[in-house]
Amino acid sequence: MVDVNLSDAEKRYIVDGVKLGTRVDGRDHLDYRQLEIETGLVSTANGSARIRLDRTDVLITVKMEMEPPLLDQPKNGQLHFFVNCSANAAPEFEGRGGEDLATSLSSMLERVYSSPHTLNTAKLCVVPGKHVKVLYVDIEILECGGNLFDAVSLGVKAALWATKMPRIYITGEDGGELEFSVSDNPCDVDRLDVS
User: Fold this and answer.
1) Which DSSP symbol is given to 89?
2) Where does the Exoribonuclease phosphorolytic domain lie (predicted)?
């Protein structure tokens, strides 16, 4: 990120604001920035959310795929996070400027959602050792106005909450291979417990 040099007057203004309990933008020290969350915006995704936190704007989409599980976790589904910092989001993102931040955000989300206390990935198992649901979470930073980690965290949780995965039924076995049926009823879906 870019270093910000403050004059002595600006520093004094910030320090005095802290003492008075007000922020530079006029909010009280306990006031939140305005937050807007919309879900279900992208019809081609299993789940989506857009979050606006003051001047920060983030779009998150979730897509589900069926894949073999990891060898050391045969009964657990997976989540993979991909972050893209749009060059229009902030001047420092131009060129390859946002790659370090995108990597940092992806790593943070991987760590948070790898904990069994965050999300029960066993609920994503279809056939232990053979087939699990893998969720690909794409995060697009549209505008960066601060509180990016908070906005991304809230947006991912909202997108996962809104995710609707078609229910999968095992219909039989043919030559040792399982046969699946995917429900085409929009109401016959599995949801994630993100509480």
Assistant:
1) T
2) 32-166
Other CB atoms within 10 Å distance of the CB of residue 117: 6
Residue 23 has pLDDT above 80, yes or no: no
pTM to 2 decimal places: 0.80
d(CA 39, CA 48): 6
Distance CA 56, CA 58 (A): 7
Which of 11, 48, 145 has its CA nearest to residue 90?
145
Task: Please enumerate in sequence order all residues whose Cβ is within 8 A of that of 64, keeping only pairs 6 or more positions apart, or say none.
Answer: 46, 133, 134, 135, 136, 163, 165
Give me the percent of the chain exceeding a pLDDT of 70: 92
How far is the C-alpha of 139 from the C-alpha of 159, rounded, in Å?
10
What's the pLDDT at 109? 93
Q: How far apart, in whole angstroms, are the C-alpha atoms of residue 166 and residue 70?
A: 22
- Smallest CA-to-CA distance from 77 within 31, 52, 114 is with 114
